[in-house]
Amino acid sequence: MKSKLQRIGVLTSGGDSPGMNAAIRAVVRSCAYHNLECIGIFRGYEGLIEGDFKPLGPRSVKNIINRGGTFLKSARSKEFRTEEGRAKAYRNLKEADVDALVVIGGDGTFAGAIQFNKEHDFPIVGLPGTIDNDINGTDYTIGYDTALNTVVEAIDKIRDTANSHNRLFLVEVMGRDAGDIALNAGIGAGAEEILIPEEDMGKDRLIASLKRSKKAGKTSSIVVVAEGDQIGKNILGLADYIRNNMDEYEVKVTVLGHIQRGGSPSCYDRVLASRLGVGAIDALMKGERGVMIGLVHNKVISVPFEQTLEGENEIDTELIRVADITST
Ligand code: F6P
Fold first, then answer.
1. Which of 201, 236, 261 is the last residue of a domain?
2. Is 118 in the pocket of ligand 1 (CB under 6 A)?
3. I need a labelling partner for 81 at 20 to 30 A (CA). Which of 59, 71, 214, 239 fits?
4. Is 74 in the pocket of ligand 1 (CB under 6 A)?
5. In the predicted model, what is the mean pLDDT of the chain?
C-alpha cells in the first residue's frame, strides 16, 4: 500500500438493505471532501473479480439517499469463496490503483473480507448493511429500522382482517439466525406470540399459550415467526399442527418475504448510514483496517472484523419479558 491513500473502492455485498444507497453516498462524498478518488464496484465481490469498476463523484450519488436497494447492485459471490477468485479480485484492485476498500454488507461480506485480507494484506473497512441486525459490535445495522417499520405496517393490516374474522395468523418474517426483527416488530405490532431462533418455545407451549389467551377473551391472534425458528421453520406444517390441536381459531399464514428488504429507508437508517459512511473514510485515513464501523451507545466506533462474527446472535432478555407481559 502507498503511504498515502488516493483511491478508495466501495461495494455492497450479500442481501441488500434499505440505506445501502445512503451509505454509498456518504462514502463517495466523504472521499470528495478529503480529496480522495472513489471507485464504485458493481455487484459486490462478483464485480471485484470481473473488474466492474466505475469512478464515482459527488454528483454520481445525487438523489439516492431516499432510495431502497443499492444502485451498485449486490451479489452473494461463489467465486470469491475460492482462492483463485480472490486472487483475480486482488489483481483488478492493483491494476485500477485502488488503495483501500469499503465493503457494505453482513456477516458473509465480513467473512470474505477477513479471508481476502489474510491472503493479500489489503486495507478493508466494513459497514454493517443487513436488515437482520445480527452483527456483533454495532447496536444497529443499516436497514434494520426500515425493515421493522415495514413489518409493523404489514402486521397492522393483517390485524384488521384477523380481527374481523376472529382468525389466528402466523406471520413469517426474515431472520435466518436472528430473532431481532421478529421480536421487535412483534412487540411493536402487539403480537400475541413471537417465535425466534434464539429460544425454542416448543409447539405444546405455543398451543397452551394460545388457548389461554383465547380463554382470556382474545378474539384473534397474531403469531410472529422468524424464518429460522425451530418450530416455525416449516410454517405451513406449524399451521397444520395448530389446526389439529385447537379448534378455537381458523388459522392463516402470511409470509412477508422480500418485501421486508425493499422500500425507502427510514430517517433513522439514512442518518445511521451517513454517519457510518463518513466514519469508514475517517477510519481509513487514520490507518485503520480490518475493522467494521458500527454504532454503540450512539457513538461511531470501530471493531475488528473477527469480533463481529464471534458467537451466536444475542437477544435482549428484557425485550422477551416486555413481549410476555404486554401480550397478556
Ligand atoms: O441476510 C439478510 C436476509 O434478508 C435474511 O433475513 C434472509 O434469510 C436472507 O437474506 C434471504 O436471502 P436471499 O435474498 O438471498 O434469498
1. 261
2. no
3. 71
4. no
5. 96
Indicate whether 206 belongs to any domain.
yes
Determine the Cα–Cα distance for residues 110 and 308; give it in Å rounded to an integer: 8
Could you tell me the residue range of the domain that residue 44 belongs to?
A: 7-143+265-308
The Cα–Cα gap between 172 and 232 comes to 8
- Atom 1 of ligand 1: nearest residue by CA position: 15
* Ligand 1 site-directed mutation target among 131, 146, 176, 309, most atoms within 8 Å of CB: 176
CB 80 within 8 A of CB 119: no
Helix 144-165 and helix 267-285, axial crossing angle in degrees, nearest 10? 160
List residues bridging with 287 in a β-sheet.
none
Question: For the segment 279-326, what is each residue's pLDDT rounded down to a tens digit?
Answer: 999 999 999 999 999 999 999 999 999 999 998 878 899 999 999 999
55/199 same-domain check: no
The answer to the question of residue 161 being in a domain is yes
131 lines ligand 1 (CB under 6 A): yes
Q: Residues 104, 160: one domain?
A: no
What are the cell numbers at 170? 402466523
Whether residue 224 contacts residue 194, with contact meaning beta carbons closer than 8 Å, is answered with yes
The pLDDT of residue 3 is: 47
C-alpha grid cell for residue 299? 457513538
